[in-house]
Amino acid sequence: MNHYHPQNISMIAWAVSKLKFSHCPLRAAISAASRRNLAQFRPQNLTNIAWSCATLCIEDEPCLKAISSASITKMKDFSPQHLANTAWSYAVLARADTPLLDAIASSSLTILAEFTPQNISNLVWSFATLQLCNHPLMDALSSEALAQIAELEPQTIANMAWACAVLMYTNDPLLDAFASAAIKIIGEFNTQELSNLSWAFAKLDCNHKPLFQSISASAIAKMS
Q1: Is the residue at 115 inside a domain?
Q2: How would residue 35 be classed by pLDDT, with cut points 50, 70 and 90?
């Protein structure tokens, strides 16, 4: 892959990961080619390689370190999706790369208004999975989630509530908004989402009776 363009390398990595095609020689070639060309990689290329490693559960230490270093230098050019997906990839691989995650947090704070509910959910989930509670980031993400509360889907509500509970991050207005939003669409929650939501509120000692009544009714209906 000596003559491959960064876009070609990242697209191949994305494709084999999407298809769950774990071929060791190809993975090694992609890793080596990526490290040689990282200076030329754009944010999307870097994100694709990180996502590929996470999707195939490849703990390629040299490649992940190189991606981290290259990403930090180009962080100002990362979009909300690039930021969220990069954090997600390192969280899946259980890599608490502090310099990278600090850079992601700082960059996210400058463009939070551009984040979609999915971006917010992925970023919060990633930091919680790595047991990293960045309070300025959590406060800002909570405010943005409140602003977009009507657009949140069951998985997003459940994931964000779970993340708050894992980090023991208490924000009463946010929890009240989650509860109200969840009650309106409780029938759309699957069993895993209901479990995560109820666990999160219990973990945070938030006894929201209308929410638990709705969860109980929905859970009973699904178990019948």
Answers
A1: no
A2: low
